[in-house]
Amino acid sequence: MADKNLPFLEKVMVKSGVTDIFDARDLTEVVFRVMRDLMNTETADRVEAELHEPAEITKDKSLQLEIADLWHDTNPIVAFLSRIRPPLQPIGIFKGIDSDRFLFRVANEGGMPPNVEVEQVIKAVFSATKDELSPEIIQEISIWLPDKIRQLWEEG
Fold this sequence. Notes:
globular, 9 helices, mainly alpha, Globin-like
């Protein structure tokens, strides 16, 4: 079966080398969290609007969710703050989230499994996500991403 026909989380697993569906879910949520931190609320809302597809077709209730559910932060305080604060872009002396910080956050907030590369996980999430988005939203997201992460987005 072609990767394009797989459910979202299975695509992430296949392309990242992650062997557990729950790890794929958790890592996807972290990648999405860092992505949202980079962009304004309007862009994040447009991305969410296009992600209303099942993430996994399963009887396991903990995996019966839409991709848009993965895009939301599960911590209500963080979710609220991310809607009212400005994008965490590197400006002047404020470091914000550059490529190194993006990689660091995914590696450390996601409980990265051993023998899995953070860049490969990010590319896998990006690739699976781009399969669900319009070309316009794909382009809009790329504007918000720092240099090396934008390259991973384009490769994904």
